[in-house]
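Q: Make up one entry.
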Amino acid sequence: MQSVVLGIETSCDETAVAVYHAERGLLAHRLHSQIALHAGYGGVVPELASRDHIRKLLPLVDATLTASGIRPGQLSAVAYTAGPGLIGALLVGATMAVGLATAWNIPALPIHHMEAHLLATLLEDDPPAFPFVALLVSGGHTMLVDVQGFGRYEVLGQTLDDAAGEAFDKTAKLLGLPYPGGPELAALAEFGDGARFAFPRPMLRHPGVDFSFSGLKTAVMLRVREAEAAGRLDDAMRADLADGFQQAVVDTLVGKAVRAVKQQGRQRLIIAGGVGANRLLRERLRTAMTEIGGTVHYPRAEFCTDNGAMIAFTGWLHLQAAAARGTLAPPGGTVHARARWNLQEA
C-alpha cells in the first residue's frame, strides 16, 4: 500500500514531527527540545510543557512538511501519540492531529508511545525480524516485552516503582548535577571507580523479570548524606558514586534482559527508550547476547529518545494493517489522550 503518514509526538517535553513514505521511507523529521525551559526547575513542569507544545507544534509541522517535499493533499493519515504521558502535553498533540486530519479529510491515528519505541529499531537499514524481546528503558518506563509480531505484545516484567531513567535523573540531582541528569551522570561515571561502593542489584536474584530501582536510589542517597556530613563529598567521590550507581543499574538491566530472552526462547533483543542510548548498557548487552548466541539491536541515538519518526512509522504500520483488514478509519476522528495505557491494549 502506497501511503504517506505525518507523525506528531508531544507526550512529555519534546515537540517532534516526521513524515514517513511507504516506498521512500523517512522523508523528514524535526524536533524541538524543552530542556532549556525546564532546566531551572530541575525537572519537567507539565503546564510549561503543554504551553510550549502549543507554541511550537504548528510551525514544526509546516517546517517538516516543507523539508519532506510533501503537500497536505498527499498525506494518507496523521498519526499522533495518544499516551501514555503527561495528559496536557498529549492533548496538545492529539487535538492538533485530529484538527489537521479533519481539515485534510484523512484519518487521525492514535499511537501508543511505548509501541512506537519498541518498533523504532525497524527504521534502521538492517532491522531485526520478529519475534524478539524488547527492553524499553526511559524516564517514565522500564519494561521487558515479548514481541511476537506487529500488534502482538506480551509484557513480561516492568518496574514496581521508579523507572531506570527516573532513577538516573534523581540520583544525578543528589550528586548536584545539572538537568537533564541521566546523561550528565553517565559522563561523570567515566571518571569514577564504582568498585568503591557495594550498591545492591535490585531484584536480580529474585525470580521473574520485574524491576525495582527505589532501593538503589536510597542507597546512593545514604552514601551522599554520610559523605556530606563528614565533609568528604568531593568531585572524585561524586564520580565514584555515579559509576557505582550506573554499574548497578546496568547489571540489573542486563541480567533481567538476558533472563527474559532465555525464558522466551528468543535469539534477538532490542533496546529502546532514552536510557537505551547509554554506552555502557549497549556494550554489556552486546557482550551478554553474544555469549548466548544472540544479537542485540537498537535505534540510532536520536531515535532512542522521544521523536516523531517512530510515531509516523508506527502510524504507517497501523494504516497498512487496517487496509488489509478493510477497516480504514474515517477522516478526522475522536481525540484520544490517556496518561496511562497498558501496552497490551495497544
